[in-house]
Amino acid sequence: MKKLMFSALLALCSASVCAHTLWVLPSHFVLSAEDSWISVDVSAANMTFVADRGVNPDNLAIVFPDGERHDFAQSYHGKRKSQADHQLTMNGTYRVELAGPARYFTFFQEDGQRRRIMANKKERLAQLPDDATDVVTTRSRGRALSFISVNAPNQTALALSNEGLELKLLTHPADVVATEPVRWQFVLDGEPVADVRVELSREGELYRDDAGRELLSSDGNGYLSFTPQVPGRYVLEASLQQDSQDPLADRIRESLTLTFEAALP
Predict the structure, then answer these.
(1) What letter would DSSP give residue 113?
(2) The domain spanning residue 96 has which CATH number?
(3) DSSP label of 5
(4) Is there a domain that residue 94 lies in?
(5) What does the alpha-carbon distance between residue 55 and residue 5 come to, in Å, rounded to a whole number?
(6) Is 115 part of any domain?
(7) Which of 20, 124, 149, 230 matches a 20 to 30 Å C-alpha distance to 176?
């Protein structure tokens, strides 16, 4: 799965970070005081929530409970992790999102060597050498998400963009409780998508002999069902690659990470 994440996250970070799992981790997932400040860590790492490489926070945004999108008030790009802070001035659910635009890569063979150019199917026509063979254009896109609720959770910031791989959060993130079932649904460009591969991991991996990661996949209608067995913070990594009907790409590679908390039962 780490190799799949590499291509999909190129739009978000440098090549040195992309072999790792990218996550955004808020200091709190549920708050009861309006006007509280939230701090968000951003890192790419092989071990869950053990910061390894800081990621440029320029593409980090926060969507308020009324749907308005804001840049973070302040941010810092660190070596091991980056950090951003913002004040939560209204009740409801906020979405923290690190995402970049879709990127197009065209791969081909020339003189027995595999090569790559940054171009979609239309752009590649003017850039490919005459003797290029085995030409394939891939659209890559990735996003890292988390949700924070202040007092009464709401649904506005959970709305889908209908672009790329997304999660319809049928179980609200504020309602995830250990030992209780969670049901979400994967959609691709707004339509349910089957067989999305998922790896679910939780905090404390550094202190366990068994990493305790769970491999899952969405069903034929895109639904993902699981039950977090212990309270704590989790990260869900999802990846998908398949042939595409996009006029600009032959294949797509999509990835998504979601950080969430399972509360005490």
Answers:
(1) E
(2) 2.60.40.3880
(3) H
(4) yes
(5) 15
(6) no
(7) 20
Domains in the chain, number? 1
Q: pLDDT tens digit string along 147-190? A: 999 999 999 999 999 999 999 999 999 999 999 999 999 999 99
Per this entry, what is the length of the chain? Answer: 265
Q: DSSP characters for 15-30?
A: TTTTTSEEEEEES-SE
Low-confidence stretches of the chain (pLDDT beneath 70): 1-19
Written as one letter, the residue type at 206 is: L
Contact 236, 202 (CB under 8 A): no
Q: What domain range is 60 assigned to?
A: 2-103+137-262
170, 256 contact by CB (below 8 A) = no
So what's the pLDDT on residue 12? Answer: 45
- For β-strands 197-202 and 191-192, DSSP reports them as unpaired
Instruction: Provide the pLDDT for residue 168.
Output: 98
Short-list 170, 180, 172, CA closest to 154: 172
For residue 139, CA distances in Å to 30, 102, 110, 190, 243 come to 35, 6, 21, 17, 10
Q: What is the pLDDT of residue 16?
A: 39
pTM, rounded to two decimals: 0.88
User: Hey, what are 191's tokens?
Assistant: 């339509």
Check if the beta carbon of residue 47 is closer than 8 Å to that of residue 2.
Answer: no
Helix, strand, or coil here: 145?
Answer: strand
In a domain, residue 251? The reply is yes
Identify the burial level of 5 via C-beta atoms within 10 angstroms of its C-beta, where 0-12 means exposed, 13-18 middle and 19 or more buried: buried
**What is the residue-wise DSSP string for 45-96?**
ESSTT---EE--GGGEEEE-TTS-EEE-SEEE--SS-EEEEEEE-SSEEEEE
